[in-house]
Q: What sequence folds into this?
């Protein structure tokens, strides 16, 4: 009896061993757990059909835990073959530690502009370590039925924006704006970095901040906080304990009129909301002003330097860099705009609206992502707390800006 | 008996499995952490820095502000447990041990069940109950005409920590209740009868006879609560996230350690500073337990029946 069991165990390990040798399985690490079905049903089957012998598993982690989980997995040697890359320093650090492979020689890199690649390159742009996938654009999504019923047209200036909010509030049918401060990042990402570029003039201000010629305490950088402080009157009851999924649900259930958004919401909102939606870019100070939008290079994919299957992994990455993938991805996930140089046809009207702003406004990326979040305290994380505090009214805009600047100065010395 | 006793090998053999497992999963990692806290990364190399990490933790204005904030919150978290959880536990045990109470087994089980639930479930369920949008708390208060008392408690800096501490109390009140209940049951009937002969009944009997007899159990519960609270992390992380909002008002040592050690969002993890915080936590718990063991437990009077 004992002997048979032993043989059975031995046989099963041998069988399992040979089964592994036939098919190579690649695992993708990602924070996009919302996209699980799209990868499983659309993207991966397309790749597997074209590349027999390679199986791909999409294995996402919750967004807030992704970086911590990935770092632990990488240092323990248990991370997947393909690593979804956060932009800028988080991935740069992984590359410097030798966890991400150098992909500069990948043929598909020719399909991307320098700007698209900049988020996943060394500071001197000598090495690129992730294949760019998509960027996300910030703005506001609104409930078209609510706007039509109240006779509001999408606002273009800040004054019109607040006039619209006042009108919605006075009517009382809808919560004017669906946002909460419980998760903090909404306040920073959909608040501060959404409306901010119009004040600090996009790239001009962002680069000046890195060069040290502007400070976070300058009027242009405090102004977004001053606007955020005014938002609190238009948020729902108990917004202090309202989480990100709460805000999404409030809006898609039709209980709120305006949702400060990132374009990544489009796919989810299209399936959830039963009403027509529209979008408008962050309002400018005066009619006719140049407008600036946050068009943030957000997601890319790289190769685990210690993968057991480098050839198959590179094959997959070449495919991720192809126009074919770009079209499939951009249409499966409207709101994640392809960074591929080949123009991509998108069918979703809301996604078209967002991407049309690239034509009339200046694009920039989130101010806190490049270089400025390299040290401790981390400017991006501090901005979360500061933006939430300003909306909650527990910190004044000037104090929040002063605290951020002091934190930044404590470790960051601009290059002379 | 002539000659020395043979070495009793069986003692070593029987102890070995427990000692080996405990060493492998507790003692070695503990010393690994203590060791890690004495190093830091300079350039690409790991170098020995002595106590420099602790100098940063306590000397740097930002690090020390975060640390003292977390420690202060943690103390407050512990105080609430001591003031609410343990007295309620004693009270429930006293009621349960009353012979006149019907369905005592049902109450005992019902009150104990939250203790075996996962933190994730408890955190999530309470977050939903208290939610200003979907929660039943505003509706229930409205039904009794107290809607004005409702607030987004988990989102306000001055109420978030208290709310979470009370949720934790709700979850764990079963443990002191069970321990005290067992202690109350172990009081021999003769003692109680003797007290009754002397005219001591009801509350007087509880204060004068039963409470002194269960004091050692209360001591054990206090130290368990202390260790549990200063190692707490799960509930805060599940309901408020790693940033322990709003504005770090619910940040306790466990969440502070997690954020530092593993990193968060764009902040990369720093195992060395993390280990320094873990060492500080170890020190705090060690001091607390020592105070209890040497200053309190030795003075508790024990009664032999």
A:
């Amino acid at each position: 009896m004992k002997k048979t069991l032993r043989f059975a165990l031995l046989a099963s390990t041998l069988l399992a061993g040979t089964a592994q040798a036939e098919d190579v399985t690649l695992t993708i690490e990602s924070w996009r757990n919302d996209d699980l079905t799209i990868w499983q049903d659309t993207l991966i089957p397309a790749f597997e059909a074209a590349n027999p012998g390679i199986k791909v598993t999409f294995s996402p982690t919750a967004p807030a835990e992704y970086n911590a989980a990935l770092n632990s997995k990488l240092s323990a040697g248990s991370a997947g073959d393909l690593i979804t890359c956060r932009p800028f320093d988080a991935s740069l650090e992984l590359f410097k530690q030798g966890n991400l492979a150098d992909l500069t020689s990948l043929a598909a890199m020719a399909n991307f502009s320098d700007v698209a690649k900049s988020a996943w390159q060394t500071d001197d742009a000598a090495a690129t370590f992730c294949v760019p996938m998509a960027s996300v654009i910030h703005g506001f999504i609104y409930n078209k039925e609510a706007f039509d019923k109240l006779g509001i047209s999408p606002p273009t200036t800040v004054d019109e924006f607040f006039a619209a909010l006042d009108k919605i509030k006075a009517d009382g049918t809808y919560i004017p704006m669906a946002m909460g401060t419980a998760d903090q990042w909404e306040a920073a990402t959909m608040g501060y970095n959404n409306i901010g570029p119009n004040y600090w003039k996009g790239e001009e201000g962002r680069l000046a901040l890195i060069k040290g010629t502007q400070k976070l305490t300058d009027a242009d950088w405090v102004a977004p906080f001053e606007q955020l402080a005014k938002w609190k009157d238009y948020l729902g009851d108990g917004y202090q304990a309202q989480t990100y999924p709460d805000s999404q649900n409030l809006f898609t259930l039709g209980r709120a009129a305006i949702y400060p958004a990132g374009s990544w919401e489009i796919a989810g909102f299209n399936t959830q909301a039963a009403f027509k939606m529209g979008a408008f870019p962050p309002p400018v100070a005066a009619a006719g002003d140049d407008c600036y939008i946050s068009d943030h290079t957000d997601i890319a994919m790289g190769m685990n330097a210690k993968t057991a299957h480098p050839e198959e992994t590179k094959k997959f990455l070449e495919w991720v860099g192809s126009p074919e993938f770009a079209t499939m991805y951009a249409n499966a996930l409207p709101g994640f705009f392809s960074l591929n140089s080949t123009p991509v046809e998108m069918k979703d009207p809301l996604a078209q609206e967002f991407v049309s702003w690239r034509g009339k406004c200046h694009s920039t990326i989130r101010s806190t992502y490049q270089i400025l979040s390299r040290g401790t305290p981390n400017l991006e994380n501090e901005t979360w707390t500061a933006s939430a505090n300003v909306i909650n009214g527990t910190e004044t805009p000037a104090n929040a800006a002063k605290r951020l600047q002091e934190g930044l100065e404590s470790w960051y010395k601009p290059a002379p | 008996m002539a000659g020395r006793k043979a070495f009793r090998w069986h003692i070593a053999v029987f102890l070995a499995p427990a000692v080996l497992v405990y060493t492998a999963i507790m003692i070695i990692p503990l010393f690994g952490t203590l060791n890690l806290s004495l190093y830091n990364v300079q350039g690409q190399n790991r170098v020995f820095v002595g106590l420099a990490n602790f100098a940063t933790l306590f000397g740097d204005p930002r690090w020390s502000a975060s640390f003292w904030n977390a420690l202060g919150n943690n103390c407050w978290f512990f105080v609430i447990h001591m003031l609410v959880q343990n007295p309620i536990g004693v009270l429930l045990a006293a009621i349960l041990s009353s012979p006149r109470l019907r369905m005592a087994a049902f109450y005992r089980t019902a009150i104990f069940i939250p203790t075996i639930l996962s933190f994730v479930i408890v955190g999530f369920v309470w977050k939903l109950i208290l939610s200003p949008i979907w929660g039943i708390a505003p509706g229930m208060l409205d039904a009794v005409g107290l809607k004005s008392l409702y607030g987004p408690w988990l989102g306000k800096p001055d109420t978030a920590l208290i709310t979470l501490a009370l949720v934790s109390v709700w979850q764990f009140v079963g443990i002191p209740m069970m321990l005290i209940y067992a202690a109350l049951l172990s009081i021999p009937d003769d003692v109680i009868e003797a007290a009754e002969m002397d005219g001591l009944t009801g509350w007087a009997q509880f204060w004068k006879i039963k409470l002194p007899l269960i004091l050692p159990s209360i001591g054990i519960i206090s130290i368990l609560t202390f260790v549990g609270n200063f190692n707490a992390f799960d509930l805060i992380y599940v309901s408020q996230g790693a940033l322990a909002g709003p504005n770090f008002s619910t940040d306790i040592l466990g969440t502070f350690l997690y954020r530092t050690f593993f990193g968060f969002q764009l902040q990369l993890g720093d195992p060395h500073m993390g280990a320094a915080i873990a060492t500080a936590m170890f020190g705090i718990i060690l001091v607390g337990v020592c105070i209890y063991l040497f200053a309190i437990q030795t003075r508790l009077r024990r009664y032999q029946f």
User: Anything to note?
Assistant: The longest helix of chain A spans residues 2-22. Confidence is low (pLDDT under 50) at residues 12-20 of chain A. The interface with chain B takes residues 64, 67-68, 71-72, 86, 89-90, 93, 180-185, 236-243, 246, 249-250, 368-369, 373, 376-378, 380-381, 384-385, 388-389, 392, 394-395, 407, 410 of chain A (CB under 8 Å).
